[in-house]
TrEMBL record, chains A, B:
<dbReference type="InterPro" id="IPR001537">
    <property type="entry name" value="SpoU_MeTrfase"/>
</dbReference>
<keyword id="KW-0963">Cytoplasm</keyword>
<dbReference type="GO" id="GO:0160206">
    <property type="term" value="F:tRNA (cytidine(32)/uridine(32)-2'-O)-methyltransferase activity"/>
</dbReference>
<dbReference type="GO" id="GO:0005829">
    <property type="term" value="C:cytosol"/>
</dbReference>
<keyword id="KW-0949">S-adenosyl-L-methionine</keyword>
<keyword id="KW-0808">Transferase</keyword>
<dbReference type="InterPro" id="IPR004384">
    <property type="entry name" value="RNA_MeTrfase_TrmJ/LasT"/>
</dbReference>
<dbReference type="GO" id="GO:0003723">
    <property type="term" value="F:RNA binding"/>
</dbReference>
<comment type="subunit">
    <text>Homodimer.</text>
</comment>
<protein>
    <recommendedName>
        <fullName>tRNA (cytidine/uridine-2'-O-)-methyltransferase TrmJ</fullName>
        <ecNumber>2.1.1.200</ecNumber>
    </recommendedName>
</protein>
<dbReference type="Pfam" id="PF00588">
    <property type="entry name" value="SpoU_methylase"/>
</dbReference>
<keyword id="KW-0819">tRNA processing</keyword>
<comment type="similarity">
    <text>Belongs to the class IV-like SAM-binding methyltransferase superfamily. RNA methyltransferase TrmH family.</text>
</comment>
<dbReference type="GO" id="GO:0002128">
    <property type="term" value="P:tRNA nucleoside ribose methylation"/>
</dbReference>
<dbReference type="InterPro" id="IPR029026">
    <property type="entry name" value="tRNA_m1G_MTases_N"/>
</dbReference>
<keyword id="KW-0489">Methyltransferase</keyword>
<dbReference type="GO" id="GO:0106339">
    <property type="term" value="F:tRNA (cytidine(32)-2'-O)-methyltransferase activity"/>
</dbReference>
Length: 259, 259
């Protein structure tokens, strides 16, 4: 799917930005770069700033006109600052990602067009796009660095593409790992019996050290249960916590026996 | 809400990256920057790369230690590459944004901690975080530029905050109450300092009961940190857990004194 997605940079002034864009593209696994009339390319500054994404730069095409860059594309999205006088369909980066993925999944070529560092895309260029995409920046300071804008737009595409994979394959790639109820954890979750055994052991120990009076329970055990249930203990963790209780009890009875 | 969110950069080598981070922050309307032992700051290279986000740089705090940067925070999220051998709760940037917004909306300070350019955060630093956030990059080329990573994480926070404003009725329904980083909880989350005080008290007590040998630590403290960071303790809970440690220590010394 990613191979249907193309990044187009219009008349980029700074070769360093081209390199930073190449790095951002490779990070997000998008490889087709088209440069319309760059000031300087190839350029060693671009190579240096690409941090090793030289394959993207080596295969980049340089063309003369906007039209040459997007001729075979059936979805063209241009980046735009908010508030153009002539309104056009505007997407936020997330909705843009959904449109792009739908189109690429149907085997269409998609172009994401980014404007000049100082003045973006011209009205003529913007009117050749199907959609404009606007990154919802601070209205008082809204101009992102070119490569940052590419990073954000491509991140949303990658993120949504992975979320779609997850929903179709039930792949765990993207699911947040928050504890042992996830396959990426390093140990199996403890069973009910194991955790319950710990709570009983804990309560007895708290009585032994004089911290807990079952006649005046307050909410102590409820609060402790809420801590440990919330983090969903794994088997090793239950063993460690019970080990601490055993050591505490051994310490108490050893001292009793010694004297 | 944004004023509760802090960006922390650990031992940044290149002042240009600090400037680029300041620009990305200002673009996303987040202003609090804390630098832990930067190689060079202030620095004219940082100023130049900030493209006018000089106010962020001027108000940035420089501190000596991770702890100093996050002491008053009750949610700490560290960026991490995938595949650490010791799994920790990991979020993708979108789920990270939801957690951060919940916590900031309940008036808690939140730290987003970014590691060194070449080797990220240390294991010790990562184990002081509640969550790790992982940007789902191309596994064959996964290292984002530092400022790019800040841009993506802050973009998700801003995007989700704007989406919540749009659906302000739906937002309360969407966030599950999973712990004290949510306004529906019955107590405020403990700060970094409070939790750290507990861990130190816990470690001393484990030595006193003969369960822990700091010379042969295995992964004991890391595993215990993972339990308690995962459930995100509230203030009352820290008091209860420290109460148990005090009672344990009192029991040991009372018995020693009696005989």
């Amino acid at each position: 799917m990613q191979e249907r997605i193309r990044v187009v940079l219009m008349e980029t002034s700074h070769p360093g930005n081209i390199g930073a864009v190449a790095r951002a593209m490779k990070n997000m696994d998008v490889s087709e770069l088209v440069l319309v009339r760059p000031d300087s390319f190839p350029d060693p500054v671009a190579d240096a700033r690409s941090s090793g994404a030289l394959d993207i730069l080596a295969s980049a095409r340089v063309v003369e006109k906007f039209e040459d860059a997007v001729a075979d594309c059936s979805l063209i999205v241009g980046t735009s600052a908010r508030g153009r006088s002539f309104p056009w369909p505007v997407l936020n980066p997330r909705d843009c990602a959904l449109k792009v993925l739908d189109s690429a999944a149907a085997d269409n070529n998609v172009a994401l067009v980014f404007g000049r560092e100082d003045r973006g895309l011209s009205n003529e260029e913007l009117q050749r796009c199907h959609y404009h995409v606007h990154i919802p920046a601070n209205p008082d300071y809204s101009s992102l660095n070119l490569a940052m804008a590419v990073q954000v737009i491509l991140y949303e595409i990658r993120m949504n593409s992975l979320l779609r994979l997850e929903n179709s394959d039930a792949s765990a790639y993207i699911s947040p790992v928050t504890g042992p109820d996830n396959s990426a954890w390093d140990d199996a979750p403890a069973t009910f019996d194991e955790v319950e055994g710990y709570f009983q052991h804990l309560e007895k120990t708290l009585v032994a050290i004089g911290f807990h009076d079952p006649e005046k329970p307050r909410q102590l055990m409820a609060r402790l249960r809420r801590i440990y249930q919330r983090c969903h203990l794994d088997k090793t963790e239950v063993n460690i916590l019970r080990g601490i209780l055993k050591a505490t009890n051994r310490m108490i009875s050893n001292q009793r026996n010694q004297h």
